[in-house]
Each structure stands twice: as structure tokens, then as C-alpha cells.
Amino acid sequence: MARLAARVADLVGSPVRDMLKVAEVPGMISFAGGLPAPESFSPLDFHEAPAEVLQYGPSEGDRAFREAVAAELGAIGLPDDPDRLLILSGSQQGIDLAAKLAVEPGTRLGVQDACYLAALQVFRLFGAEFVPLASLLAGEGPAPSLAYINPTFQNPTGACAALAERQALAEACQRHDCILFEDDPYRDLDFEPVERRPVASFIDKGSFIYQGSFSKTVAPGLRLGFLTASPDLLPKLVHLKQAADLHTNRLSQWLVLQRLQAPDRLARVDANRTLYRQRRDHFAAELSRLFADLADWEAPSGGFFFWLRLKGEVDASALLPAAIRRGVLFTPGVHFEPFRIGPSPTLRLNFGYVTPEIATRGLTILADLIREDRARQAA
Length: 379
Fold this sequence. Notes:
Helix 3 runs parallel beside helix 4 (117-125). This protein has helices spanning 15-23, 63-74, 91-102, 117-125, 133-138, 163-175, 234-245, 250-261, 265-291, 316-325, 356-378; strands at 29-30, 85-88, 108-111, 129-132, 146-149, 179-183, 208-213, 225-229, 295-296, 305-310, 328-329, 331-332, 346-350. Strand 3, helix 4 and strand 4 form a beta-alpha-beta unit. The chain is of the alpha/beta class and 379 residues long.
């Protein structure tokens, strides 16, 4: 039998990636995954792409593209130096690079009680020991070496941290010499005025990684993200990137640069905000109509997700097979909860991907299923 690295012994596939296969079944209503609305995609024209983008390029990313992204980062309080920027093959690569940089078996890693599941998957692969982020803020126990956060329209809860929370987290990371790793893919999908200043912008004497993505605002199939980092970390992240894939797809970089420079860019961003706000509002109204006696939730002020906590002793995972048989797919919340022991009553629903009509149909099916399950348990 082949000898494999010890870290793959407990390796399992991503539950969301497995669910996306189910989502391809004709007629399936999918509230699972972080898929953006196809209607939000920008038209992309490959015909004017220069031949040079088909050649190998710099690991850091094409210069013109880095300059454009760096200028936007400067406007939100982050380094505006293109030499402080690394272009990624999707923000998932940034999580992988950060794990390779800072995580080994037994590394204490601070995470929120509900956390992006694909990040948990990577950190587990490298042997992280998860600790509650609250313990870092309170100064309880040994400080983690790395704190992974998603403070703006968080995946999965949709929560958005207040200014005081952001400042406190930056201060705690600096005080305890903990690397702040901020994942910020949803910041441009805001529906109301809320605090969105990056936590990393409050770091002035510590180590940080801040990353974003074009998957939610342009197109996920381009697999394009970016990160900036403190000077002590960036060169090492560049070297890890070189070892992983040499450089990010240059055609994708060129295409997104055209969108960043397009005269109608801000109008398209506003149009997407309007689209998602309308879908959020419709979803919230339907939840109030169908789920008032079944679950608790808070309407998100941005992003893609509603986070529901079913009332009573309910295992959301146990409902999934029956939901799939009826043509509805959702993500059980237990996959996002690193400290959960036993069944969870939580589930994540993506309101952005489906039209209002399909959302109503799917939520009706799901509510009926939950009521039937309650009636069975009460019988």
C-alpha cells in the first residue's frame, strides 16, 4: 500500500462541494453553497486580450492589475503599494497559503463559533487546534498563533462586526503577537450603511494578512482573489505561491482589470447591490411568513446568507436527505461550527442565488418538511 503523508489520514471532502453535485440535478432548488446570482455576472470580452497574457507572468500578479487593486485598498485604510499585493487563484488559495505559513500540528488557531467551513477544512488538514476567538479577546489561556476572521457579512451567519469589535480584535492580536488573518469577500455587497473598515487597517505594529475576492462581484469561475500582508509575512507568502502554481491566470487578471477600469463599473456594483437587497428582502418576508414559529434568525445587512436556528430539539442535518428528495438543498450549520459536539439546529441558506419565485417555492417545501418532522416527533 502506498505511503502517504500523515496529514491526509483524516482528510475528507468539502460538504459544500459535494452538495454542489446534488445541486446539478434538474429541478433542484439550491440554498447551499456560496454561489452568486448568474444575473450579477459582468459581460466579459476576450477578443481584445493582448497575446502577452498567454505567457508566463510574475508570481505576484500583473503590475497593472496590482496597481488597480492596491489603489482600492488604499481607499479603505490598507496598504496602497502594489508591491505589497499578491494576486491569488481565488481566495481559497490565500487560506491554503496562510495555513502553510503559520499552521502545523498543534498550532492554536482562533476562530469564531461559526466559521467558513472551507477554511476549517484547510486548517484541520495542517493540524490546527481550534480555540474560541473570545478567549483571545479576553486574554484567557495561551494565545493562538493565528486568528482567522470574516467580520463583514460573515459566512455563515451574515453578521457584521461593529467598529469597537474590530478595534478590540486588532488590539488583542497585537498585544498577544497573534497573526490576524482577515477574509473579506463580501464587503462590496452591502445593503445598508454599516461598519466595513477592515480590522487589518487598525494593525500598526503586528502581523496580518488581509484578503479579498472577485468571485462574488465579477465571476467565481475566473478564480481570482488577492491579499496584502504585513512586511514580515508577504515575501514568504510569495514564495509559497511560487511553489504552488507559479502565478495566477493572467487572462483572468486582464479580464477583471477591464471591469475595474470600465466607466460603468460603479453602476454595475450598485445594480448588484439592488439585486441582492431585493432578494434579501423577499427572503426575509417569506421567512417571517413561513418560519416564524419554526426558527430564529436575523436579516443580514449584506452578503449572501441567512443563518437559521430551528426551535426545539432539531437536528438540521437529519432533515437534509428528506429535503433533497423533495428537491431542496441547504447546508446544515454543523459543518460551520468547530466547537459543536452533537447535532446542531442551525442551517445556512443562500438567498442570493435563487430568484424570488424559486425562493418562495423552496422555503415552502422546507417549512412543510420541518412541520411534518415536528408532528412525527410529537406523535
